[in-house]
Design brief:
The protein is built from 1 helix and 8 strands. The chain is mostly beta strands.
Length: about 150
């Protein structure tokens, strides 16, 4: 049985362009959740046999993660700056490294996102943490996509 350990999943932000991405790993991430959901469109008719019937609708992506509060960390600062400046950042939420090792594949969500929330958690007895939520935004480069990279 093949499986991927969560500790091997990676979060990246693009420091290059969309056409020529330079993926910088954001190592300062503790826990991350990638939520993908789909709208349901009610297509029930009188011929549905008494059952509601549905069609697939639009996809919705929501990514939440927490980071150690570290103003000296470049990725932390980039995310904080984007939040306050209301600018977007391109992210890749991957199940492995970019680029993957020879013969390997890495896949996940690639999207230009707004920083929806940037909240500081000050739990007594814990390290100072920042909870971040990102959501895809419209941009001139590309729509969000399921991004797969295979290295020969």
């Amino acid at each position: 049985m093949a499986f991927v350990l969560a500790e091997n999943a990676k979060l990246y932000h693009n420091t290059g362009t969309y056409a020529a991405p330079v993926w910088a790993e954001i190592c300062n991430v503790k826990d991350l959740t990638l939520s993908l959901e789909k709208d349901e469109i009610d297509v029930t008719t009188r011929c549905s046999g008494g059952f509601k019937e549905y069609a697939d609708g639009l996809l919705d992506a929501n990514v939440t993660f927490n980071m150690l509060y570290d103003p000296a960390d470049a990725a932390f600062t980039a995310i904080q700056t984007a939040f306050f400046a209301k600018t977007s950042v391109e992210f890749a939420v991957m199940d492995g490294v970019l680029p993957p090792a020879s013969g390997d594949t890495s896949s996940g969500l690639r999207a230009t996102c707004m920083i929806k929330s940037f909240s500081r958690s000050e739990s007594l007895g814990d390290a100072l943490m920042t909870d971040v939520a990102i959501r895809p935004v419209t941009n001139d480069d590309a729509a969000p996509e399921w991004y797969t990279v295979t290295t020969p």
